Amino acid sequence: AQEKKIFMVQGPYPIIRQLLRARGWVERKAPSTGRQLEQHCGDQNRPRLQTAPSSGGARQREEEEQCDEDPHGIHHLMSYLARDQLPNFIWTNFLETVDRQLLREDSVLNHFARVDAFTTKEGLCLSLQNLPWIEQADPNAFFPRCYRLGTRDDREAFIEDFRLTAARSLLKLALEEAGNRPVRTEQVPNSASKEGESHISHPKHSTAQPGSPLYPELVEEALEVCKQHLGVLQHEDIDRNTPSPCRTCIDWDNFLQQYYRVAHEGAGLVLTRQQRKQCQNLLQSLAEKLPQLDMEGKLNVWILKPGAESQGRGIICMTRLEEMLQLAWSCTAPSVQVGRWVVQKYVERLLTIFGTKFDIRQWFVVTDWKPLTVWFYRDCYLRFCSRPFSLHHLERARHLCNVSVQKWYKTSPDQDPRVPSDKIWSNKQFQEYLAQVGQADAWHEVLVPGMKAAILNTLRSARDRVRFRKGNFELYGADFVVGENLQPWLLEINSCPTMSPSSAVTRQLCANVQRDTLCLVLDRKDNPTCSIGAFELIYKE
């Protein structure tokens, strides 16, 4: 073992262990984690493997044997001999689990410190708020606007944003209703549409008028608020002390209650011809100043997220301001500190596939922070929800694409049968679909450049807060949704993306990205021209 390279793995990574052993490396067992690892493999991998095709049985046994850690074989003997040697390479799921005394000067470790500046929801929100001070870039062009409800300034900014969005949404609803055309309703999956046709959902809006009529000043008030807001946007570069349009003498509580009736309860609106023209002109002018005006839709849906949780825990979609503020300040949500919530604008105008919401998990690796060096993985995968997309039903099964959320739901009977049963697609399958709906160039011309730009801007916004050690690297998983216009919107970045396969697609892709990551961080040092698989260098300062 003296001449052999030593590695240590903590967590459910049988592929990493297998690849390093195949290179002739020797494993030093992580202190007191052997049993935990075996348990982790059992808990995390085995149930998911049952969703694989029938050939998965042999693979399952193979992975179980890897988890079993070769208790009597040559690897076990070599590990015993290596027990006192410091590892050359450590791959772990959490940086906190690594004993600093185990690190040699030239050890390679798969994490950096303080990456919570962009890998927690709170950290990402704060870093991207600061982006315009660091770069010539607008976070509103790729990251749905986001607020930390635990800080007073952010909470007040959110309340103002919610009110302004309600006023804009009311103008959109009024125009839609005044259009003297059949109101568009949400498409029913698998209706009389042609095979392969793109299903893009539009929220239905009833023209029924239940209850008492709306007070006639409602549209006028919305127009006045939007005019004032436009004035602020046009002059904000000159005078930052312009009073907020939300501080006007509108009774906001009353306005919002009436807006809820129109948006969510089907109450009708009547527009004069003059108001109609004003609405059109105002929205057109606002669109030039607000990059999110189109994607924000007209129902004012927001998504509340616990600030430091992952895997979709605690996330909820909501439409009423008072309920959101109440939830964020109640102690009823388990494991969430009061006030540690972020609230983010929900992308209402989504591209759906076969009437179903999906998101994209996109990998990238950072190998250095000074100079910042970023590698983008050319393969990725899509994750589908189990129920058709609808903004009138806000349950998790329709709106959260995380595998860890969707595994608890059966596919609903009204789901289009063309949605894959394991709820996963590769980017190749997505590209084929885009070609079928007449968008063959969108992947390479819109989606990939958009994802790369969002990732780079995010890393630049956070780099001064990250603590890095030369020789380390980190593999991240960024999650994106896609707007109706095919623009990607960044939702979050994960510092420990799952490598436990939930489908045939992810079994292959997760194995590939682990193999290519090892080539990138181990082989390239000695051989800069070696193969690094699907990685491409997208940035080096």
TrEMBL record:
Residues 31-69, 181-211 are annotated as: Disordered. It holds the Pfam family TTL. InterPro entries: TTL/TTLL_fam, TTLL_monoglycylase. SUPFAM superfamilies: Glutathione synthetase ATP-binding domain-like (SSF56059). It catalyses: L-glutamyl-[protein] + glycine + ATP = glycyl-L-glutamyl-[protein] + ADP + phosphate + H(+). Keywords: ATP-binding, Cell projection, Cilium, Cytoplasm, Cytoskeleton, Flagellum, Ligase, Nucleotide-binding. One of its GO terms (biological process) is cilium movement. It is found in: Cytoplasm, Cytoskeleton, Flagellum axoneme. GO terms for molecular function: ATP binding; protein-glycine ligase activity, initiating. Residues 37-46 have a biased composition (Basic and acidic residues). PANTHER family: TUBULIN MONOGLYCYLASE TTLL3. This is TTLL3 monoglycylase.
